[in-house]
Design brief:
Number of strands: 0
Structural class: mainly alpha
Radius of gyration: 13 Å
Strand content: under 5%
Number of helices: 3
Length: 58
């Protein structure tokens, strides 16, 4: 198990039943990056990956 799996499992356990918009997720990612600029690259990669999930070229 990767260290990040614990955080993902906690997210699922605590908030897995909620429905949110992608706009809400984008706002939370921006807020997180503002608070933790050292993770900007990782957040950018995650956001780009999510945005392009159904792009056949990627």
């Amino acid at each position: 198990m990767y260290f990040t799996d614990r955080g993902i499992e906690e997210l699922d356990k605590r908030r897995g039943g909620e429905e949110v918009s992608l706009a809400w997720v984008a706002e939370r990612l921006q807020e997180f990056t503002d608070l933790h600029p050292e993770f900007e690259t990782a957040v950018e990669r995650l956001a780009t990956w999510l945005a392009r999930l159904d792009d056949p070229e990627d």
